[in-house]
Write a structure and sequence with these properties.
Helix content: 40-55%
Strand content: 5-15%
Radius of gyration: 21 Å
Largest sheet: 6 strands, mixed
Shape: globular
Order of helices and strands: HHHEEEEEHHEEEHHHHHH
Oligomer: single chain
């Protein structure tokens, strides 16, 4: 049955978390998750902060911090977030955020809030899909494979880098290289994974812009003031637009829904883990996560449709689904009304 927010889960404050999350945080059930600043890694927050034209200087600063001097981005343009497959069977690919710098480099930024079974393969597919889309339908000889640099950046919120023991490293900068010599084979396709749970620096230990951004991404919703090291114009702007009290009524509804979705997903993940442990089957986790994620997308779309304030395109962008999925949910809801 589709989920809808109860009156107790709406304003005031930054919404309420579910009972499982309350227990994990040592909170009483239905206690508001009071927070001065919004969580920048939620769907709504991330796109509001980094995905709008007035705030693209924030995205530029974040990218420059991540590349640590290897690149210096001065301007960029946002790209469409949905890339349609070549055939109906292939479907569409939806990016959280994608943009192109004035020098032609393409950046795909993904926020992952739970472990994914095929995370590396999916990111490889995203990067490859973006490159393949550059190929013209004709005149390929004249095109001469003039493909742009493509970088996939993954912000991992709360889970470990898949595959092997990576210790306490929080930045994984991946490129194609010679296995025997370590020499870079092709430097224009890169993958940068940021493992936020391993970033353990305190406010007094921040030294670089990257430190500042990682600290903000991980801790902003827990802060009540701007850290001293971050009292710079770019971060002051960030904290100014991230104040929950400055959101409109509609924005607060969208944020609260996004926050609720985060805690419900965390609860579904924990349930899947426990089920897997009880049965002794690791695959129970994977199936539980996949089913839970699909159900949450359906519930979020239902809530936004019920609000009657958003277009199919806006709902698809917020819920990270295709517009076709939104239309199918709408048709299903209309059918149930008859």
């Amino acid at each position: 049955m589709p989920y809808s927010l109860s009156e107790n889960e709406k304003e005031p404050g930054a919404g309420h978390v579910n009972n499982w999350a309350c227990k994990q945080l040592g909170m009483k059930e239905n206690q508001p998750a009071v927070s001065k600043f919004i969580d920048p890694l939620l769907d709504f927050s991330f796109k509001r902060i980094f995905g709008t034209e007035p705030n693209k200087d924030l995205l530029i600063s974040l990218l420059n911090g991540i590349f640590r001097g290897r690149k210096h981005i001065v301007d960029l343009v946002y790209n469409k977030h949905e890339h349609v497959g070549d055939t109906a069977e292939l479907g569409s690919v939806i990016f959280d955020l994608t943009c192109t710098a004035i020098d032609g480099e393409v950046f795909i930024i993904e926020v992952q809030r739970s472990g994914q079974v095929n995370l590396k393969r999916r990111m490889l597919y995203y990067g490859s899909k973006r490159i393949a889309d550059e190929a013209p339908k004709g005149k390929r000889k004249e095109w001469d494979y003039a493909i742009p640099e493509v970088y996939v950046i993954v912000l991992m919120d709360g889970f470990a880098m898949p595959g092997g023991d990576h210790g306490d490293r929080y930045l994984h900068d991946i490129c194609l290289c010679n296995r025997d010599t370590g020499e870079v084979f092709y430097d224009d396709l890169g993958f940068i994974y940021l493992e936020l749970r391993n970033f353990a620096k305190e406010e007094s230990e921040l030294e670089t812009d990257l430190d500042g951004w990682l600290y903000v991404l991980k801790n902003m919703s827990k802060l009540n003031r701007i850290p001293l090291y971050l009292r710079k114009p770019i971060f002051e702007k960030l904290f100014n637009i991230a104040e929950y009290s400055k959101l409109t009524k509609e924005e607060k509804d969208m944020y609260d829904t996004s926050l609720k979705r985060k805690w419900d997903t965390a609860g579904a993940l924990e349930y899947a883990r426990r089920e897997g442990e009880e049965k002794g089957i690791e695959k129970g986790i994977e199936k539980g996560i996949e089913k839970g994620a699909e159900q949450k997308s359906y519930e979020v779309v239902c809530n936004l449709l019920a609000a009657g304030k958003f277009t199919d395109s806006e709902i698809a962008n917020f819920a990270t689904v295709t517009e076709d999925f939104v239309r199918k949910v709408r048709a299903e809801l209309n059918k149930k009304k008859k």
